[in-house]
Amino acid sequence: MTAQSSATIMGMTTIEAVTPQNIFVFKEARLRALKDSPTAFGATYERESQMTDADWMERARQSDGMKRVMYMAMEDGAVCGIAGAMRDEDDESRAALISMWTAPTHRKRGVGRMLVEQVMAWARAQGVRVLRLMVTSVNPTATRFYEQLGFARTGRTEPYPNDAAVIEYEMAMKLDREAY
Question: pTM of the predicted model, to two decimals?
Answer without folding.
Answer: 0.89
